[in-house]
Each structure stands twice: as C-alpha cells, then as structure tokens.
Amino acid sequence: MLKKLYAEFIGTFWLVLGGCGSAVLATGNLDVGIGWLGVSLAFGLTVLTMAYAVGGISGGHFNPAVSLGLMVAGKFDRAELIPYWIAQVLGAIAAGFILWIIANGAEGFSSAGNFALNGYGLASPGGYGLFAALVCEIVMTAMFLLIILGATSKGVPAGFAPIAIGLGLTLIHLISIPVTNTSVNPARSTGVALFGGGTAMLQLWLFWVAPLAGGALGAIIWKMIEPDQSEDAN
Transmembrane stretches, by residue range (predicted)? Predict the structure, then answer.
C-alpha cells in the first residue's frame, strides 16, 4: 500500500509541476510563450508519462475525482480512497511549493492571481460565471472518467490507455481553460490555491465539489454502457 501512495504522490506532483509550471513559467513571453495550446499539451503529457512510469504501481489516478469515480465504478477499493486522496493532495502541495520557489526567482513575481489558479467570475480567464464553471467542471470530469474507464476496459488493445487518457486531458484543457482555467482535479486546484491565496482559496470549494460530482457521474454513465464481458465470452 505504501508504494501505491508514493506513486500517487509522485504522479500528482509531476502533474501539477508540469501542467501548472508550464502555465506559470512558459506562457508570459509573447514571442516564445507556449500559450493555452502548450499548457493543454503539458497537462496531457504529465498524465501520459506518469501513467507509463508509475501507473502499474498505483493505477495512475493522480486525481481525487478519478479515485472516486473508479470506486463508484467498482474498479477501486473504497478502503484506499482516503489514503489516495491524502497522497494526491500532498503531492500537489509539494509541487506548488517547488513551483513557488522557482517562480519567485524572477524579479517582481507575485503568485497572487498569477499561479495557474482556477476560478469563476472575475477569476475566470474568460469571465465565465459560477454556474457555467460548475457545469463545465462536472461535464469535463465526467467525460474524463468515461475516457479512463473505456480506455482501460477489457477488449481494448493493451498498452495504449495512457495515450488516450493523456490526449483526453489535453482536449479537456483546450475546451475549458477559458472557463475555469481547467481543474477537473481537486488536488491540482488545491496545490496552487494555497500559494495563490485570496480569491482562489475562497472559490476552491467549487473545484472540489464539481470534479468529485463529475467523477461519480462519469462512473455511473460508464456502468450503464459497460460491455457485458460474460455475454462477449459466449
């Protein structure tokens, strides 16, 4: 069990450092900055690389909403849920701290409102309100769970799931960065909100409630459409 928790810590650490780090460190220069497309790819690549690196140890969740969704779908032991959540959040906070140290190496940097934070209203990149943010996060997380459950189901070619999952997360970011700066992951939101403070902390509740609800919803939908393996075997 301890090795699983270490793997979840490391995987979530890399997700936040790679995804949020790309947003904080690599988007500011108008001539060479990577923009929203680059940030979207960075998040997808963190999941893809860590799924291959440590997914065989822990299952490669790196996200409390994914762990909850897998539990609802009957693919994950409920006794391991809270320990996974703790490891994921601690990994995200550790990454946020490392990123904060690096970013503060630039003169005049301030993490307040400038730290890959999730938000709605005035804190939304596109000015989207609370209801739009809530719907967006629920739907995007539900679709993420459907991708994960489908890509890892029986009958799907083995070894390709991390690619589908990573590209799925990339697409989710391409859609929803303008709305909420894309969470779909409570640990990711928490890891940077602690260092961005202010509005990010006040709005953090939504980026726990909506992804968790979306993760459970995605699992419920998958259970409705999941192929019956016993029928396939006949």
Answer: 36-60, 81-103, 128-148, 160-180, 200-222
